[in-house]
Amino acid sequence: MIADGSKKPIRIRFAPSPTGPLHIGSARTTLFNWLFAKQHNGRFILRVDDTDTERSKPEYEQNIIAGLKWLELNWDEGPDIGGSYGPYRQSERLDIYEKYLRRLLDENKAYYCFCSKEELEEERKAMLSQGLSPKYSGKCRNLSKEESGKQIERGDSSVIRFKTPPKEVEFNDLIRGKIKFDASLIGDIVIAKNLREPLYNFATPIDDFEMKITHIIRGEDHLPNTPKQILIQEAFNFNEIKYAHLPLILAPDRSKLSKRYLETSLNDYRLNGYLPETIVNFLALLGWHPEDDQEILNLQELIQKFNLKKIQKAGAIFNIEKLEWLNAQYIKKTDSVELAEKIKDFIPENWQTKKDLLVKTIEAEKERMKTLADFKELADFFFELPDYEPSILKWQEMENEKIAANLKLLRTELENIDGMNFNKDNLEKIIMPLTEVWGRGELLWPLRAALSGKRASPGPFEIMEILGEQETLKRLDTAITKLS
Ligand code: GLU
């Protein structure tokens, strides 16, 4: 399909650097890219930006891929599945970059720079002291090819710099509108350490061109890189690419999102018991909202409603309470049999074998769960009665003897019920009339506490149905013994 009046099919990429686990902010960038690609029937490409060989690690690439799969943001081309424009890891594309680097050097649009770190630092300080914003002085810009050739042969250490043309770079950001940069302030940037070690701002426009990328959606933190990449594109006469820079995600105090406030790695949210549907929904609302203000949206609804052009420019606040609220909504909505599958990693193994009990327990507790991790503590008493203090059986000022007598009375009633009828409605019908004689709190509090061993739990009728007659009677006996 065609977007923005251009004839080219949409090709859009997500280009993470595998220098750490998938960041929650990068997950949002991927989602927005993915939604845009889906809306325009475009191709979504995963490219791994691993030019930083020291910091890039295969395990981070795996973590990124696993995280995106968990969110079900699938791609059409990528390092794991290949495609017509591969390889999809920058570390495997060095020949391509070398070819382009040579071209720039031949055309005199780039040059070798031999300035030492110390020299550069001095230059920087001098500029700062004159109140100028620091940039490279251009000292090696006019070295002849012979001179630099000799120095290279001698083994002098060098980098490759781009001859940044001193012009105004202007582009139309799909979110932020017209953006202008004065490139004369940038100076001649380093684009490669050598022919085999290109840097991000060089490798990226080359790949975007080679992979026929039409749109780049990325975080606003990349805004200073955009003019540099556009200038490289212009140096090669590459086609124009459309840009959209997403607002930053901020902590509640509007500071940069950092580990100090919140988990920043997507996987931590998974481990803390958030559902992928929640995360997708939450991330979509970080900087965007649908016109009708609908808050619960699945991927299909997001594809329908998402509008890149309606993304806000201001930073988006990460509100953890909203995330918890959303997760609780999704948990409530999820079928209990399905939740029993999803909850596996959060419960002891022996609970998993009691599938029937597990599903019933989830049904009883899911209203109270904010995360899957909450379940274990809420539901443990169903699987094993905790060793509780008899004091929790006490209703107001009741004497132990009286409590025990009430529990015995209840026991007699309960043991007369046919096992087949041991369900919530029937139990309620039998026991509620007794409370009119013996008192509601006086009967129901000790009963509920005896069943759960806890001060707070679901109501006694629901618990009894789940535990069944045998276990219910056993727990009443335990309570009666504790009181004597
Ligand atoms: N590799 C860059 C990063 O992880 C993103 C590159 C881009 O989108 O141009 O921040």
UniProtKB/TrEMBL annotation:
Assigned keywords, A-Z? Aminoacyl-tRNA synthetase, ATP-binding, Cytoplasm, Ligase, Nucleotide-binding, Protein biosynthesis
From what superkingdom does this record's organism come?
Bacteria
Q: What is this protein called?
A: Glutamate--tRNA ligase
The protein's matches in PANTHER family, at most eight in alphabetical order, are given as: GLUTAMATE--TRNA LIGASE, GLUTAMATE--TRNA LIGASE, MITOCHONDRIAL-RELATED
Looking up SUPFAM superfamilies in the UniProt record yields:
An anticodon-binding domain of class I aminoacyl-tRNA synthetases, Nucleotidylyl transferase
Q: Which Pfam families match?
A: Anticodon_2, tRNA-synt_1c
Give the gene name: gltX
From the UniProt record, list the coiled-coil ranges: none
**Which ranges carry the Glutamyl/glutaminyl-tRNA synthetase class Ib catalytic domain?**
10-325
Q: Which residues bind ATP?
A: K259
Which organism is this entry from? Candidatus Wolfebacteria bacterium GW2011_GWB1_41_12
Cite the HAMAP family for this sequence.
Answer: Glu_tRNA_synth_type1
Instruction: Show the GO cellular component annotation of the record.
Output: cytosol
Q: Where is this motif: 'KMSKS' region?
A: 256-260
